[in-house]
Design a protein that fits this description.
Layout: E1 10-12, E2 21-27, E3 32-37, E4 41-46, E5 50-54, E6 57-60, H1 67-73
Parallel strand pairs: 1-6
Antiparallel strand pairs: 1-2, 2-3, 3-4, 5-6
């Protein structure tokens, strides 16, 4: 069953992929959504460009999007630091052996 589209839903280009943005507004009167795309800003898309909605995710039908938005999707993660990546969960969790007043990693 298709879930209700509401602000805050994460936006994806395909199931199992990394999120690319979030729904900011649902414009029922015009059958449009305002979505924010990481590294690109806000875009208005027609509801017909939504392939699926489930598990708190909105999946786009990329072929139904305008050329400006499709181009923006090519650069969603360009601003991310390629040197920053956690290789394991231990890289981001505090060391339980440290006293609580020692700052966390990072």
């Amino acid at each position: 069953m298709r879930e209700l589209i509401e602000p805050g839903l994460m936006v994806f280009t395909a199931d199992g992929e990394v999120g690319i943005g979030a729904v900011r507004d649902v414009r029922s009167e015009t059958s449009e959504l305002l979505i924010n795309i990481e590294n690109a800003g806000d875009f208005v898309i027609p509801l017909s460009a939504v392939r699926d909605v489930h598990s708190g995710k909105l999946i786009l039908e990329v072929e139904a999007l305008g050329p400006d938005l499709r181009e923006a999707l090519r650069h969603v993660h360009d601003a991310e630091d390629p040197q920053y990546a956690a290789s394991s969960i231990e890289d981001v969790l505090p060391d339980p052996e440290l006293p609580s007043d020692v700052p966390l990693k990072g």
